[in-house]
Amino acid sequence: MSTRVLIANEPAELRATLKVALEADGFLVDEAETLAQALLAAGTEKPDVILLGHGALELVPTLLHESPGAKIVVLGGQDDPQAVQEAFAAGASGYVLADTEVVPAVREVAGGGRYVNPELGARLVAAESQAVRRDGLSEREHEVLRLLALGHTNQEIAKQLVISVRTAETHRAHIMQKLGLSSRAELVRYALDRGLLQNEAQ
């Protein structure tokens, strides 16, 4: 079956351009002029991929509720790594800056992957790497932090990382000390705020 794409709440001229490009690549395309129409189409047409402007990110959870199997590709107007983080945190699977990226982005997310504008993606990785260095944690401590935030016990962490339980406990103590945290709830909030659990949320 062909992949069904919904182009939501974009200017008519842009919707027409994207529709031509997507249909030429074999996709079935629906259009929604307003956000209300987008919600209705998501529930009735059950699109595989929804193209949505960055200004409508607050609608992503509702769209995914109406069409649980859909993937969201954000048509971004901001050349900013933080905008990508916001889009993915909202539940999107792709972020494009140019019209020419839409077809490969739809292909990628329809196949279960993620898509980010390549140049912007490189800047995002660099920004995240810089953030990792600033908090003073080692790469292994970040692995332990992520697993702790996901609810794993010291024993489970030791098994997954092939280390001793004592070493896992030591890593945990160092993490709490370095970050100035005193509870698992604070640790989970720290991990969420820095996007360390985004992959698991998808």
What does this entry look like structurally?
- It is a single chain.
- The protein is α/β, with parallel strands linked by helices.
- It has two domains: 4-126, 3-Layer(aba) Sandwich (Rossmann fold); 135-201, Arc Repressor Mutant, subunit A.
- Helices cover 57% and strands 12% of the residues.
- The protein contains eleven helices and six strands.
- A six-stranded parallel sheet has the order 2-1-3-4-5-6, with helices on both faces.
- Helix 4 (81-90) links the parallel strand 4 and strand 5 (94-96).
- Helix 2 (35-45) runs parallel beside helix 3, helix 7 (139-149) packs across helix 10 and helix 8 (154-161) crosses helix 9 (165-179).
- The mean pLDDT is 85.
Put the structure in a nutshell.
By secondary structure, the chain is α/β, with parallel strands linked by helices. The protein is built from eleven helices and six strands.
